[in-house]
Amino acid sequence: MEDGAAPLRGCRDWWGIGFGCNSFRTTCGTNFLSNGSDLETCQMLMGHTDSRATKLCDRRALQPTLADIERIRYGRVQARADNGSAAS
Questions:
Q1: Are 66 and 59 within 8 A, CB to CB?
Q2: Per the domain annotation, does 29 fall within a domain?
Q3: Alpha carbon distance 73, 1 (integer Å)
Q4: Which of the four pLDDT bands, split at 50, 70 and 90, describes residue 56?
């Protein structure tokens, strides 16, 4: 029987992306705190006995801005000809 994390590991290995189940827990905790919850409730829901562990999951200060996202480019940028069409 396959465990629930096996598809995640397969995707991670295929794409070479460094994430795991704990990444999803951290994202969940960050979203929970971003939506106005308090640290103590988040700590209880995540099952942490020490609030320092919950604070490690708080990534709100690392949220990208719209300007950061707009700088993301995929693929090669093609040179433009004088008439504005893509060069071949």
A1: no
A2: yes
A3: 40
A4: confident
